[in-house]
Write a structure and sequence with these properties.
- The complex is a heterodimer.
- By secondary structure, chain A is mainly beta.
- In chain A, 0% of the residues lie in helices and 49% in strands.
- Chain A contains no helices and eleven strands.
- In chain A, strand 4 and strand 5 form a beta hairpin.
- Chain A is globular, with a radius of gyration of 13 Å.
- Chain A starts with a strand and ends with a strand.
- Chain B is an all-beta fold.
- In chain B, a hairpin with a 6-residue loop joins strand 6 and strand 7.
- The chains are: A mainly beta, B mainly beta.
- Chains A and B meet through strand 10 of A and strand 7 and strand 12 of B.
Chain lengths: 119, 112
C-alpha cells in the first residue's frame, strides 16, 4: 500500500511562495499519478493540479494556472507543489493524493500540510 | 466546470438506521463509450484527510465496510449507509472525475 508523507506546516507572508513536498513509498512511483487538493478552513475540497511521475506531464486548475507548479523527482519518489503570490485566501490544508493513471479519483491521501498566509 | 450539489447539507440519523446522501451533477458524468459513471465518494473525519469509499459510482474501495453503497447514473447519485455506526460520523463528499477540473460537492455532515 502506498504511503504519502508530506512536509511540515508553513507560515508565509502575503506575496511569498510556498513549496510543499510529498514523498511516496510502498509502490512503483511511476505507476500512478499524483494530485494536489486543498481545503480552506471550514471549507470544501479544491483540486489544484496533478503530475504524471513517469513522464512529468502536468495538468492544472485554470483558477490557479500561472501560480501553481507541480513537479516530481523520480530519484526520491517525491512530488512538489509550489504556489506563488500567496494571499490570505491561500490559507488552507494542502493534500497530496495518488490516483490511477489517467483517472482523477484519489485513492490514497497524505495527512496534509497546513499553510498559513499572514502578515 | 461541472458543479456538484449535495443534499442535505447535514443529517442526523439514529444508530443502526439508514443514512442517505444525494449528489447531483450539473451535467452527465456517464461516459457512453464504457458505460461508466465518473463519480466518487469520500469520507472525511475531523483532522483527517479524505478517505475514498466508492468510485465508478458504485464500486466499493477494498476495506470499506459493505454498509456503504453507491448508486445512480448520469446526473443523480446516492451514497447509502445501511446501518449507521458511531464511527461513520463524518463529512461526506461526492466528486466527479468525468471532466477536468475534477470537482467536489460541498459536503454533507452526518451526525448521530
Amino acid at each position: 500500500q502506498v504511503q504519502l508523507v508530506q512536509s511540515g506546516a508553513e507560515v508565509k507572508k502575503p506575496g511569498a511562495s510556498v513549496k510543499v513536498s510529498c514523498k511516496a513509498s510502498g509502490d512503483t512511483f511511476t505507476s500512478y499519478y499524483m494530485h494536489w487538493v486543498r481545503q480552506a478552513p471550514g471549507q470544501g475540497l479544491e483540486w489544484m493540479g496533478r503530475v504524471n511521475p513517469s513522464g512529468g506531464g502536468t495538468s492544472y486548475s485554470q483558477k490557479l494556472q500561472g501560480r501553481v507548479t507541480v513537479t516530481r523527482d523520480t530519484s526520491t519518489s517525491t512530488v512538489y507543489m509550489e504556489l506563488s503570490s500567496l494571499t490570505s485566501d491561500d490559507t488552507a490544508v494542502y493534500y497530496c493524493a495518488k490516483a490511477p493513471p489517467d483517472l482523477y479519483y484519489m485513492d490514497v491521501w497524505g495527512k496534509g500540510t497546513t499553510v498559513t498566509v499572514s502578515s | 466546470d461541472i458543479v456538484m450539489t449535495q443534499s442535505p447539507d447535514s443529517l442526523a440519523v439514529s444508530l443502526g438506521e439508514r443514512a442517505t446522501i444525494n449528489c447531483k451533477s450539473s451535467q452527465s458524468v456517464l461516459y457512453s463509450s464504457n458505460s461508466k459513471n465518473y463519480l466518487a465518494w469520500y469520507q472525511q473525519k475531523p483532522g483527517q484527510p479524505p478517505k475514498l469509499l466508492i468510485y465508478w459510482a458504485s464500486t466499493r474501495e477494498p476495506g470499506v465496510p459493505d454498509r456503504f453503497s453507491g448508486s445512480g447514473s448520469g446526473t443523480d447519485f446516492t451514497l447509502t449507509i445501511s446501518s449507521l455506526q458511531a464511527e461513520d460520523v463524518a463529512l461526506y463528499y461526492c466528486q466527479q472525475y468525468y471532466m477536468t477540473p475534477p470537482t467536489f460537492g460541498q459536503g454533507t455532515k452526518v451526525e448521530i
